[in-house]
């Protein structure tokens, strides 16, 4: 087990200032794999001072200088792809195949897409007798969760740097090792000292100190709606720019005329990927009442293919959850759903067979729940799909829009026009049509309690820019 005792501040690794550590466990074995510093407020202040000192120089850098630096960063990510995937598998439990394809592949694609955005972006424009400038917004606090730990770091840090901002990153306490690897890669890219800083630690200490600190101009947060609300309040008091990427309970609507088997099979793959720890997961499958039993039969057969196992084994499709706490939470939701009258289509309570060590749950499909049941309304963040019948299109829309969330969604139909027309009426930030395909240039973010602000593409860059107009 590695004991790390430093934080990345001001262009180098500095001895940790506090005495406490966070022990990182492998969720498949429950064994400790490393300890990292539990940061303290003094380290937050030091990191922000370094970021503030570096801000004018980085803000004044040319587009070409930033493009060159971020190209080196992207190339560093690509060169470390295998180590990235292995690190995420070790500390999060993501199966090796998905860890390579998505946990490592997506951040590389996102970093590449931001190079294109930066190359093309108009940082000033003429509007009548004015010139309107998009200026760097200053010092950014990036606070990230554990479920796509590198993707969510890259989706904040890269556009912030592209905009000319400097950054202090506070990663999740569950996945600090990937953040340390990211800091090493940034270090290798040769950015000026203080442009990027990392402080590992607890959310209630390091995260809260960052969100409240007057030395922060922008708070970019991804995580739960509960913590997002607290961060929004804190940032509001300081009149900081803030973006909040929060929870979801996304609906996947199968309209009559769609390929039902494909829709159900792809939906299960979507919900069980990353053990269901995906903010955009289509956790509510809506099918017409005439196709309800057929859909449940397809789901039962499909679910049987998702046997949990060792995430290091390339054949494994479903690994453990990140922590014992998360496992208990998901099991409570499954137990609660059964108490609420759910029909068990697949999976169920308890541990998967033969897996009493590791934070495993059984990939589960539930039916017959009333629309107001907790398992239908609340984000479970585990491999749990709820199937709901609808009577007609208006009923489907009311169900789809009938939660506090609005992050993602899917619509399946016989033709794309029909699906898109339905998707336009959904209260949500992005909808995949007949399966969709990830686009790192498309804006990503939530409606309602799923958040404010956007990541990715031009919209993501603009979260880190301030507007200034000069009148002539
Ligand atoms: P979380 O809200 O518990 O923690 C997120 C981050 O906030 C962590 O770094 C944590 O240490 C920090 N934090 C905790 N308390 C804090 C406080 N009081 N002040 C400041 N920072 C604090 O979320 P999580 O459990 O790490 O992640 C899961 C959640 O993230 C889910 O709700 C999921 O939907 C959401 N999520 C959203 C998106 C999106 O883009 N919309 C993407 C991934 C995950």
UniProtKB/TrEMBL annotation:
<feature type="domain" description="Aldehyde dehydrogenase">
    <location>
        <begin position="13"/>
        <end position="469"/>
    </location>
</feature>
<dbReference type="InterPro" id="IPR029510">
    <property type="entry name" value="Ald_DH_CS_GLU"/>
</dbReference>
<dbReference type="InterPro" id="IPR016161">
    <property type="entry name" value="Ald_DH/histidinol_DH"/>
</dbReference>
<protein>
    <recommendedName>
        <fullName>aldehyde dehydrogenase (NAD(+))</fullName>
        <ecNumber>1.2.1.3</ecNumber>
    </recommendedName>
</protein>
<feature type="active site">
    <location>
        <position position="245"/>
    </location>
</feature>
<comment type="similarity">
    <text>Belongs to the aldehyde dehydrogenase family.</text>
</comment>
<dbReference type="InterPro" id="IPR016162">
    <property type="entry name" value="Ald_DH_N"/>
</dbReference>
<dbReference type="InterPro" id="IPR016160">
    <property type="entry name" value="Ald_DH_CS_CYS"/>
</dbReference>
<dbReference type="InterPro" id="IPR015590">
    <property type="entry name" value="Aldehyde_DH_dom"/>
</dbReference>
<keyword id="KW-0560">Oxidoreductase</keyword>
<dbReference type="Pfam" id="PF00171">
    <property type="entry name" value="Aldedh"/>
</dbReference>
<dbReference type="InterPro" id="IPR016163">
    <property type="entry name" value="Ald_DH_C"/>
</dbReference>
